[in-house]
Amino acid sequence: MSEQDVLYEVDNGIATVTINRPAKYNALNTAVVGTLREMMKKAEDDDSVRVVILTGTGEKAFAAGADIAEFKDKDSKTVRPLAQNGQEFCKYMESMSKPVIAAINGFALGGGCEIAMACDIRYASANALLGQPEINLGIIPGFGGTVRLPRLVGLGKAKELVYTGDNLKVEEALRIGLVDKVFDSVEALREGTAALAKKLAGKPGIAIKLAKQSLNHAWNLPLGKNLDFEVDVFCQTFATEDKEIGVDAFLSKSKDKPKFKHK
Ligand code: COA
């Protein structure tokens, strides 16, 4: 893989990870998924980073899927690491202590849709097209699509999308909750995503981390256990300096926004 197949930059506490194979519509080969995973770890380990944006280069594609060229000579045994690799990357993003925003700047198909679903929030441009078209290749989603899609959009809609392989225009993706906001152009998407990232970067980091943990926890366990977990992490926020800062700012009717220390 070329070093440049994934770009990484940090600006004002916001890390942007960009899939950069525009000639292949940012298709996700094994090396790219591995580098994306490394870059996410880099963002996680950097204390100055508060929020991460995942996006694709250009105006055509976020990612048009796993790289189909890699499927050619694989069989049921040799393909397993490819799927596990993709799933592990998705799980890693979900386990990160910082919010990850997907800026979907065009096609988000197959693996592209799956990695977007593993992000915390999905913003998209008007030209975005989303879906799980694997059925048309005689296969099924393998980066977590059959697991995350029904949780986001409901079982019936997920079955319709996975069985038909039909791609969704962004208005429909917004309507069913697969994306959270739509922008008129890719440029407007970049601006809107940057504004959201800036807003989240100013929030108390520990409270964001614990909120993400509790929301994700709710995906995995029965109701009672989730409520217990929420009480635990709620209490943890009362051990932070940021709670003092935020509550004092409100009670003193300060006009300035609280300056959180993420401690
Ligand atoms: N894997 C590998 N290469 C891909 C790809 C993928 N998932 N998606 C697009 N590409 C490549 C094409 O092979 C082509 O490369 P080439 O110019 O070297 O031939 C280039 O990206 C542009 O794609 P092309 O098909 O020519 O563009 P288009 O505008 O006609 O169609 C798509 C765009 C996204 C609709 C079409 O490329 C497509 O259906 N891609 C596969 C989507 C898919 O099934 N994803 C799930 C995979 S599990």
Topology:
Blueprint (H helix, E strand, L loop, with lengths): L5 E6 L2 E6 L10 H16 L5 E6 L4 E3 L16 H16 L4 E5 L2 E3 L1 H7 L3 E5 L3 E3 L13 H9 L1 H10 L3 E2 H7 L4 E3 L2 H16 L3 H16 L2 H15 L3 H11 L12
Bound molecules: coenzyme A.
Descriptive account of the structure:
- By secondary structure, the chain is of the alpha/beta class.
- It has 2 domains: 3-201, 2-enoyl-CoA Hydratase, Chain A, domain 1; 205-251, Lyase 2-enoyl-coa Hydratase, Chain  A, domain 2.
- Helix content is 47%, strand content 16%.
- It is built from 10 helices and 10 strands.
- The protein has helices spanning 30-45, 80-95, 111-117, 145-153, 155-164, 170-176, 186-201, 205-220, 223-237, 241-251, and strands at residues 6-11, 14-19, 51-56, 61-63, 100-104, 107-109, 121-125, 129-131, 168-169, 181-183.
- The strands form 2 sheets. A 6-stranded mixed beta sheet has the order 1-2-3-5-7-10, with helices on both faces. The protein has a 4-stranded mixed beta sheet with strand order 4-6-8-9.
- α3 (111-117) crosses α4 and α4 (145-153) crosses α5 (155-164).
- The longest helix has 16 residues, at 30-45.
- The termini are far apart.
- The mean pLDDT is 95.
- Coenzyme A binds next to β6.
Could you tell me which ligands this complex binds, including any ions or cofactors?
coenzyme A
Largest beta sheet, briefly?
6 strands, mixed
Average of the residue pLDDT scores: 95
* Secondary-structure class: alpha/beta
What form results from the Cα inertia axes? globular
Order of helices and strands: EEHEEHEEHEEHHEHEHHHH
Number of helices: 10
Report the CATH topology name of the largest domain: 2-enoyl-CoA Hydratase, Chain A, domain 1
Total discrete domains: 2
CATH superfamily of the largest domain: 2-enoyl-CoA Hydratase, Chain A, domain 1
